Fold this sequence. Notes:
With 782 residues, this protein is an alpha+beta fold. The protein folds into 5 domains: 4-22 and 30-311, P-loop containing nucleotide triphosphate hydrolases (Rossmann fold); 316-432, Translation factors (Elongation Factor Tu (Ef-tu), domain 3); 442-513, Elongation Factor G (Translational Gtpase), domain 3 (Alpha-Beta Plaits), CATH 3.30.70.870; 517-642, Ribosomal Protein S5, domain 2 (2-Layer Sandwich); 651-781, Alpha-Beta Plaits, CATH 3.30.70.240. 29% of the residues lie in helices and 32% in strands. The protein is built from 20 helices and 44 strands. The strands form 11 sheets. A 7-stranded mixed beta sheet has the order 3-4-2-5-6-12-7, sandwiched between helices. A hairpin with a 2-residue loop joins strand 3 and strand 4 (98-104). The longest helix has 19 residues, at 226-244. Mean pLDDT is 81; it is low at 1-25, 66-76, 82-87, 686-690 and 712-726.
Amino acid sequence: xxxxxxxxxxxxxxxxxxxxxxxxxxxxxxxxxxxxxxxxxxxxxxxxxxxxxxxxxxxxxxxxxxxxxxxxxxxxxxxxxxxxxxxxxxxxxxxxxxxxxxxxxxxxxxxxxxxxxxxxxxxxxxxxxxxxxxxxxxxxxxxxxxxxxxxxxxxxxxxxxxxxxxxxxxxxxxxxxxxxxxxxxxxxxxxxxxxxxxxxxxxxxxxxxxxxxxxxxxxxxxxxxxxxxxxxxxxxxxxxxxxxxxxxxxxxxxxxxxxxxxxxxxxxxxxxxxxxxxxxxxxxxxxxxxxxxxxxxxxxxxxxxxxxxxxxxxxxxxxxxxxxxxxxxxxxxxxxxxxxxxxxxxxxxxxxxxxxxxxxxxxxxxxxxxxxxxxxxxxxxxxxxxxxxxxxxxxxxxxxxxxxxxxxxxxxxxxxxxxxxxxxxxxxxxxxxxxxxxxxxxxxxxxxxxxxxxxxxxxxxxxxxxxxxxxxxxxxxxxxxxxxxxxxxxxxxxxxxxxxxxxxxxxxxxxxxxxxxxxxxxxxxxxxxxxxxxxxxxxxxxxxxxxxxxxxxxxxxxxxxxxxxxxxxxxxxxxxxxxxxxxxxxxxxxxxxxxxxxxxxxxxxxxxxxxxxxxxxxxxxxxxxxxxxxxxxxxxxxxxxxxxxxxxxxxxxxxxxxxxxxxxxxxxxxxxxxxxxxxxxxxxxxxxxxxxxxxxxxxxxxxxxxxxxxxxxxxxxxxxxxxxxxxxxxxxxxxxxxxxxxxxxxxxxxxxxxxxxxxxxxxxxxxxxxxxxxxxxxxxxx
Length: 782
């Protein structure tokens, strides 16, 4: 008998809001917490989906729209003006007696550091795909970046012309290298008198229902008709066979009836979660967020299949971990609190607001914490719903919140003792999820309009660097310019806009590539200060391409810009003199070296990829003057850097991934190789060579059952006009960064707007003589 139940979503939202009020966030069990991120290619619908999550969970009373610039998570003026996510936003969503801490991350490659630091504190992620575009270049990149956390996939924009659920699923398997678990599949309503069909809902594979979204925020839950029953049965067969490879419970349940439709939903859900947590396979759902279709099942999947903090393993160095029902215990001390500061923003009223993820114990407002061995007093603690704060008295393990304090920065490990005791020496050295900052590769000059404006500009830049460590600026004493460096053209453009909002008055120079200098062969120098009785012998040589090739019996210190230092003396050599700590000595040496390697001999650029070794240091027994040692190091390096022939210039090289239609591939390759000095690494298409692992997933994709789609024949989607939506080919190339400036308009012109690209930093490489002459001319103009 056919039954239909109409559910009013306003009532559903009321239920979830009531649950949120009844269960305060600070008493929700850690097993009911989900720390997740939303990751995807730009314009896949991340922010639109997040806005619907907020609305249907009762957090907001209206749905924000990206095009109208009134979204909750994209609250920066630059985000609302451009319609893109620039800064990751943290929001809290109540759903089904769970608390979802969700971070909406940028999709644009220039803001990849926002994704990197967000992933450090996440236990799981939702990957959103555009069902028309399929798996795009940035999707592959963020999928690799999030390789250590379980994920679910939401195939969005199923209402769009050219939407291809089946083809997208095949690309998920073959390009992302994962098996898939179909949680629901699309339902299309036939349009009378037309060959077309309209996306209206989903077939729920687990609970065997049809969910249809209608007007006035309503869902109709219907029994399956015969055709729908057949589709769901085949989906269940595929699902159970995949789960059976990792979970015998599902197979045992199937053999009880030998009917795929009679395997209980609760057994399937437990098995899906097990498969997801072990990253054996990935649950896949579909919908159309803009049309408000499919978001509630996605929220259900987040709470059902993604891990709680108890089911994830944090990366905590220098200590041991033990898991209890209340969270992780660190260093066998159940009174120890450990958290990671992963993001800093500036609030005009509160000052610096530091986002933290608590891994053990709890943070208490108005208490003392330890950061880098220093004790710091903190004030209020907050939970953020985008830019709207909620004050709390404490943050327990598993939660994400905010510390209001001016003394923290991104990447700091926050430690505390619940009973306000001092930390032991071994506890102070604990490091939680260290965050690596990628090197900035683009630069612009910032010139204050007047001498009086300089202070305001420098204060603004310093504030921005606290918020975004992937920005960097240096004061060029020779030219008087401030050089601001970032991850890309858009990154710098947004930074300039942000600086203007801080009331700084300045002019901007053109975008430049961040070149460096490096040493070609090993050089030695020995210098002394006779009056002080100290001498030093140091060497400089190219650093090995892999840090693993460095001698293992030495201690190395990071000087930045891929420069390293080691000292041949053991710590006890200095401490035996009973003058100052070994740390003071090392800090003095590092200070002298960093200040001396900012200008190479070729064209006065900072050094990169060098290894500086302190071969010998000779000092009198009564020596206790680190400043003299710094002076001597600088004298030695000035002498070493006089040999210009031993140095060369390096330029940043990029890994470039370009998606182009097959008919344009020759023109794009010609442009890359002839005009941009690029080297083609490979061209990937359906007939291209694949690694052994990816061959396996290509075979899995071919055997995966997927429902037939409207207007699709032989794997090719047809639009209303009868033209084909053909899959793009992917060009992988290595190209100098300089040649990629302004590349997108050129690519769009070659491919008639259909091409797209993604690039990431590969490393610094020495330039040829011809390239050096061009770079010198370029910098002279700059």
